[in-house]
Specification:
about 425 residues; 6-stranded mixed sheet; 3-stranded mixed sheet
């Protein structure tokens, strides 16, 4: 049966190819969507794995950028059992840098010959640190990710930098805002160069590289300077980074913090990851609804292909029926052909997704790497076979219900 179905498909290669393209493209979309979701989850997991503390934010805000808390909470947090360090922070989206905000920079990239891909995660933020408090931290990520001295890493903020315009930036930001040489060429901004933030020039004293698109968009400066730049009151902070004596007890420490302070969320990195995964699940659902429209088009293509195939083969079906084939046999034959189309489309879509992710990973940065896993290929194959079989049901039923002599007569009149 399956060999017969395969030969029938191969007798009309162009039509079969068009049907394959129609269904393999949405399968590519499904598997590609899953690979992006896996890549983002792995990236976020790797990013949060570098952070060992608890972030204290205002309740029901997604990130420190949107949070605001009284600075006096610091004393209450230090009194929580198990807390060893409390570091106040001010976070906000950066004002225009070198005269460019995110919108104007995006338009400039669109109108230039620059090959760098536009990235929604490129929004630069400012982190103002209480420098003495941050020096007490053991898991502070930016000091640990400074570039080596031989790569121009410079140094991190010290107590002597309080109130100054010294900043630490990422290797990514240094490349995004290069310095123009006298001969017209450019180089990444380095230690000792100035960077204009808003209306003020700042001096770069250090460059870090976490290799994460979620972290490499931060300009670090003294908290008092950040308050001036961002116009934040002295009695307000965005968040507190809290460390405990035993990282494994962070959940218990977070619960104790929330019990002492109303209106705050004390989030460990596991909770951040869970919230991010929930957001990705919602995004996956929305995108799957969009891809389902393409799947519907692919099914319509298979229905059209199988209808044309069965119409042209009325004589064949009539002869088969007169030679003892039952309606069930004809139904099985046409369904096998459409299922084979679905299976081939699934293989094609999965192969395209694998090669597409390999190609895309050569151009992606910020630690994001797409990944196609066997489970997602299995889902793609199952979906394509199901859609292919479903698309062939009506043509199969139409072919099977023909009376043998009527089928021969209808086929002969064409």
């Amino acid at each position: 049966m399956w060999q017969f179905a395969w030969r029938n498909l191969m007798t009309r290669p162009l039509r079969t190819l068009l049907a394959l393209v129609g269904l393999s493209v949405p399968i590519l979309g499904v598997v590609g969507l899953f690979s992006l979701s896996v890549g983002l989850r792995n990236l976020m997991g790797d990013t949060l794995g570098q952070i060992q503390g608890v972030m204290v934010l205002r309740e029901n805000v997604p990130s420190p950028v949107f949070s605001s808390l009284p600075a006096k909470y610091a004393e209450t947090l230090r009194a929580v059992p198990g807390v060893t360090a409390v570091a106040p922070e001010v976070w906000a989206i950066a004002p225009p840098i070198e005269g460019q905000n995110l919108i104007f920079k995006t338009l400039a990239q669109l109108g230039s010959k620059q090959k760098e891909a536009l990235n929604p995660f490129d929004t630069i933020v400012i982190q103002g640190q209480d420098i003495p408090a941050h020096q007490d931290l053991k898991s502070a990520i930016y000091p640990r990710k400074l570039l080596p001295p031989d790569q121009g890493g410079g140094r991190f903020l010290r107590p002597s930098d309080r109130g100054s315009t010294n900043i630490v930036i990422s290797k990514k930001i240094a490349a995004q805002y290069p310095v123009t040489r006298p001969d017209g060429s450019t180089r990444p901004r380095g230690v000792g160069d100035t960077l204009k933030i808003g209306a003020r020039p700042f001096t770069v004293i250090g460059i870090y590289d976490t290799k994460s698109m979620f972290l490499d968009v931060t300009i670090v400066m003294d908290i008092a300077t950040a308050r001036e730049v961002l116009q934040v009151s002295e009695d307000q902070v965005s968040s507190f980074y809290v460390e405990g004596a035993i990282p494994a007890q962070n959940d218990a420490m977070a619960a104790a913090i929330e019990a002492r302070l109303e209106g705050v969320d004390a989030r460990g990195m596991d909770e951040f990851l869970a919230n991010f995964s929930m957001l990705l699940n919602q995004l996956d659902t929305f995108l799957m609804m969009t891809v389902s429209l393409a799947l519907l088009v692919g099914v319509v293509g298979i229905i059209n292909t199988m209808l044309m195939s069965t119409t042209e083969r009325f004589v064949e079906f009539g002869v088969l029926r007169t030679n003892g084939w039952s309606q069930t046999n004809v139904l099985s034959l046409v369904t096998a052909e459409s299922a084979s189309l679905g299976l081939l489309s699934g293989f094609a879509g999965c192969l395209l997704a694998v090669f597409g992710t390999i190609l895309a990973n050569r151009f992606l940065g910020g630690g994001l790497q797409l990944r196609v896993i066997p489970e997602h290929c299995a889902i793609g194959l199952a979906l394509s076979v199901t859609m292919g079989t479903f698309g062939g049901l009506y043509p199969a039923w139409r072919a099977a219900r023909l009376v043998p002599m009527d089928a021969i007569r209808l086929g002969g009149s064409r």
